[in-house]
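Q: I have 365 residues here and want to know how they pack in 3D. Can you give me a structure?
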Amino acid sequence: MRVLVAADKFKGTLTSAEVAAAVADGVRRVRPDAVVDTVLIADGGDGTLAAAVAAGFELIPVTATGPTGEPVATAFARRDNTAVVELADVSGLIRLPGGDLAPMTATTRGTGELIAAAVDAGCTRVILGIGGSASTDGGAGLLRALGARLLDASGAEIPEGGAALAQVVTVDLEPLRKQLDGVEVLVACDVDNPLTGPSGAAAVYGPQKGAGPEQIEVLDKGLGHWAELVAPDLRDTPGAGAAGGVGFAALAVLGAELVPGIELVLDLVGFRERLDGVDLVVTGEGALDEQTLHGKAVAGVAAAAKAAGVPVVAVCGINRLDDQRLRAAGIDAAYALTDLEPDVSRCIADPVPLLRGLGERIGLR
């Protein structure tokens, strides 16, 4: 029996690697003859860098600007002329000092610094995962790190963060374009929000970044002003609102293509090639729910495995999908931690033994 475990992280609890290790251990306990392989996956947010490195990319350490201006030790991953940059690892919520939210001033400058470092190292293809952003700056910080100049009425550079976007009078992109000449950018993007409005970056994602109603209004107006200066025809493009407007900056200025995150990661890790001879794929994430079905990692893994004729089961913390919806997504069965331990708090506190137990059930199926 050959099993391939390709599970996403259990957000806030376990990494992709930890989930895979626990499940694999459980399968081997009851099927010592089984050949169990693991592959790290992610959907473009946190974990994307780790997946690339596990797939053979070289980790290149970089010190860059965190979301509130402090230096952070981060990295990009490189193989040949391709670089993988994970916004979450440098400009994400996980990089806020003490977890203190900064909705008006957080910046994506560090992400731009990572891209610049990759380009300086000779990379001509950049894969940018943009999930988990701490800011709503329209990607302005990222662009400034790549050479763009955003000036106010007095000719001075504006401050960092989304609140300052309303002050922009002049946008000079010529230095950036020179630096990125000949560089292809692909953006791992799993949302279809426009830049502004009731479904835009500020309204939908601002609250999780700490923005109250009045702040959301300020940020939304700033993003609208920013769009009018840069590319007004792209403000309503699906995905423009991703990562606080980084999607817009990537489309409008970097000439990027927005691609579903899991599709990019599956290609990076050679997932389809690794399906050859596999009898069962185990995927999973913290919760199987409606969001799972809309471009999340589990759905992408299941679709790829199903296309190759390989059965798929899923592990999760909790399952909110009925059998019909699971099968429609290409998942033959789901195994939840709550099947073994109904107390969700215990599942969160000590998930590894429970995941091993699910691995044993899968091995005996």
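Q: Anything worth noting?
A: The two ends are 12 Å apart (CA to CA). The chain has a mean pLDDT of 96.
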